[in-house]
Sequence to fold (194 residues):
Amino acid sequence: MFPGILTRMPHVFEPASSGRAKCRGCGRAIARGEVRFGERLPNPFAEGEMTLWFHPLCAAYKRPDAVLQALAESSAGVSDAEALERMARAMSAFRRLPRIDGAERAPSGRAKCRSCQQPIERGAWRIRLVFFEEGRFVPGGYVHLDCRGNHFEGHFVLAPVLHFSSDLSDEERAEIARLCGSEASRTSEAQSKD
Ligand SMILES: [Zn+2]
Ligand SMILES: [Zn+2]
Fold:
């Protein structure tokens, strides 16, 4: 049916041969010599395959299943393979988590929250979502930071939210951590009462 799948190149961890490639996960450069993760996919637009390059941790957050597959084959050269695997397993456990693309204050009040369907008021914290389609990430709307408990069903979102929010100031990041921290403890209290 799909003979190409049988001969597909495996995903790979390897040192970046140049500093030109950008990470698909965070959009930042991958430094020359730094270990990068390559996800191999059938090219949706042409014959053959394509490789998407990521920082390993960015891939663990956004493409966890591919990372787990690669680690199962070989973790040679990956310096923190155990931590990477732990993170990929956590993200892989719930299908919406890999959509997290960071947080920002809403620049206008036009977008609606995908969780509660209410407008996200200007200046409120919102989580950006992306969907992976045909080999690329496409913008998938927003949820209120306050709606993360519903949208992500109580899964802890702080690590990926902060990871993909590198343009925020330290104060803003601390504020997000504080806002998420209070709910994280409430969530675990609620769960332990069940
Ligand atoms: Zn990255
Ligand atoms: Zn909401």
Remarks:
- The mean pLDDT is 89.
- Residues 170-193 form the longest helix (24 residues).
- The chain is about 35% helix and 20% strand.
